[in-house]
């Protein structure tokens, strides 16, 4: 079955950096678009960044120039490098793939403090 396991979240001061990782299994990783979403309490889950099988990326306007999504097809990993973190980046971050159905990881908490 499809499994997505995120890691790398934590507590960081504003202006700092974190790198999230997502390990995927149960899919032919290199053929799939991978995405990172985030959700804050009381808000909907929104797309942060996505990377296609060809390596094409797209970002939410709020993170452009600060976050970078990348993938390692040999290791079935997708990363989200987050720089210049802001208080409003605080959320649970989820890895996502669509493979006949939507699949989500368990989420990893990112908390940005002042």
Overall shape: it is globular
Q: In DSSP terms, counting alpha (H) and pi (I) runs of 4 or more, how many helices?
A: 0
Beta percentage is over 45%
- Please tell me how large the radius of gyration is: 13 Å
On the 0 to 100 scale, the average pLDDT is: 97
Task: Kindly describe this structure.
It is a single chain. 0% of the residues lie in helices and 54% in strands. With 114 residues, the protein is mainly beta. A hairpin with a 6-residue loop joins strand 4 (34-39) and strand 5 (46-51). The N and C termini lie far apart (40 Å). The relative contact order is 0.32. The model has no long low-confidence stretch (mean pLDDT 97).
Output the keywords.
114 residues; mainly beta; globular; 4-stranded antiparallel beta sheet; 11 strands; single chain
Q: Layout of helices and strands, plus pairs?
A:
Layout: E1 3-7, E2 10-13, E3 18-25, E4 34-39, E5 46-51, E6 57-59, E7 67-72, E8 77-82, E9 91-98, E10 102-104, E11 108-113
Parallel strand pairs: 2-11
Antiparallel strand pairs: 1-3, 3-8, 4-5, 4-9, 5-6, 7-8, 9-10, 9-11
